Amino acid sequence: MKNRISVLFIIILFQSCKNESKKNTDISSTSIPKYETYDYSGFTKEEIYGFHKRIFEGGNWTEYGDLERYYYLNFSEIKKHSRILRSNTPKILEEMPRTDVKNFMTSKDLKKGGGLSLNDYVQQVEVNGLIIIHKGKIVFEGYPRMFPTDLHVNFLITQVYVSTSIAILEDRGLIDTSKPIDYYFDALEGSGWEGVPIIDILSMSSGIDYQPLETYEVSFDPIEDLATSKSSKPSGTEYQFSNADAMLLTLLVEKISGLTFSDFVEREIWRKIGAESSALLGTNTNGLALSYLDGISTTLRDLARFGLAFTPSGRKSAHPLISDSHLYKIRDVNKNLKKKSRYSEEMIYKSYQWGAVYEDGDFYKGAHGGQGLYISPSKDLVIAFFGTANTDRESNQLHVISRQLSKSGLFDLD
């Protein structure tokens, strides 16, 4: 009798495990992919021990090179974070590797690695991972300095998750970006933010004086803290990078939605793009999402899935995540914010937290150390990459190569 009960218990336990929701599974199973790993083997035990010893003794992780790359790939071991759960129905990415993309020759005038094939470039220059998706299919994918399943810090690319969240609420009529920010936050009346339209904050032209990040880290009433900000110029007249802009927009998403930013991204973006892996979102000491600094940590494929939502291949449903209105507004730029690219004679604009909107409608967001997301809706093209600057503070130039790839003719639609 006792044995029968034990067997019955095991059967019940097995059945419950079998039926358990996949909600808490970080990574779903997939077929064997066709990407290159270039024999990457990860960090040694000695390297891992040395890094943690350095941090424990008060050392700075921003030393560039492999020390910093360890931080990028192991954020959860070092900083506070919240978890953004993956989709229960991951979007399958069809793989169709293209030799012409792999062998694309980079420009000879690059600071480093010029004249190499794309495949050789990612191996020899400071690239952790690169993925290119055309017409919804992966045409190149390589991981020279990370594992494909690694969660990698996105840094300021996270700001376009913020602007996308604003756009989602805007599409629902819950936010009017033409209104001043103090319309939504009474505490900002009389501050430098008073009268600043949300659309100018989205384009990083709020005109607000720089505030040190340390202030945000210790404040337990961030809106009250931001209310001390002073204006240095009229909004909408000049691009001025500011972490405060993304921070304030994050607080606006939370106020209007009634959700934490982490929960909003999980419900309205992450699951809807069919994210294959759960993500991490850094939080500071007061619990606020670090959307304006370390930001979100994702796999490279899931960053590409987010980018795919802006392309025709990712917008086939009746109610796509990225609406026609949002796509139009990204490219409906403030002409006052025109600036010549540092890498060509082209003009670029700032819009909806995107760092460069080109006159042909392509747009791009880059981040510290060599991270980037490049999107060309007209070519149905997504290029996403991660990197880490070396000890000489040299980063990859995949942002330049992405633009060259887009204009190369390799991705022109029939």
Describe the fold and architecture.
The protein has a domain at 45-172 and 251-406: DD-peptidase/beta-lactamase superfamily (Beta-lactamase, 3-Layer(aba) Sandwich), CATH 3.40.710.10. It starts with a helix and ends in an 8-residue tail after the last helix. The longest helix has 18 residues, at 2-19. The chain contains 14 helices and 13 strands. The model is unreliable at 1-25 (pLDDT under 50). A nine-stranded mixed beta sheet has the order 2-4-3-13-12-11-10-9-8, sandwiched between helices. A four-stranded antiparallel beta sheet has the order 1-6-7-5. 32% of the residues lie in helices and 14% in strands. The chain is an alpha+beta fold. This is Serine hydrolase. Keywords: Hydrolase. It is an enzyme of class 3 (hydrolase). InterPro entries: Beta-lactam-related, Beta-lactam/transpept-like, Diverse_Enzym_Activities.
